[in-house]
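Morning!

This is the sequence you dropped in the shared folder:
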Amino acid sequence: MRRPFEQIVTEYGPMVLRVCRAVLGPHDAEDAWSETFLSAMKAYPDLPPDANMEAWLVTVAHRKAIDATRAAARRPTPVEALPDRPARTGRPEDWDGDLWQALKALPTRQRQAVAYHYLAGLPYKDIAALFGGTVDAARRAAADGIKTLRTTYPTHPDNPDSPSEPGGPENPRSPGGAGGRGDAGSPGGVGGPGDVGGAGPAEPARKPENFARKEVAR
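The structure's back. Tokens below.
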């Protein structure tokens, strides 16, 4: 029996928002999140029952991120912009501006590989399929991205030993991620990423050092 779509939003919404934020940054992530689940809701009735839900949703999010990137390129550049402020509470509305600046500086493929593997928990073969490349290339992109992040995004001095966030390959579906939570809404629609049907509280973003440490330990 097919699960109600609102359950899919509740379970996977936080992961998708984490990915959108890592790939697009705080300004475009919520729109991409909404577009992802609106598109997914339309296609869900025809999805095979044994489909890999994470891989499918990340694929949809990947396409929406491409659309958002193209749309952003067409928008006029503001003369002056306020800098992002680092998050301190881990609430969904907060965003670590330092982390986004570090992610933004990565080449696109590296940023995507880090997000898809370490936040969504996708294996490299699925990432390679998204990129249209090889498994080795996807693995190298993620490794290079993490190597750079370890030098460009140091652990915050107020909490140098902060634990890593659930949401990597070991626990990719944890509801308490830095991406916040989404709203399952009524069965006929999808709300915004502010409330995912009572999922647990959000947690601070996983530090890049912990990404790398877990990767080495695998």
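Headline: The mean pLDDT is 73.

More detail when I'm at my desk.
O.
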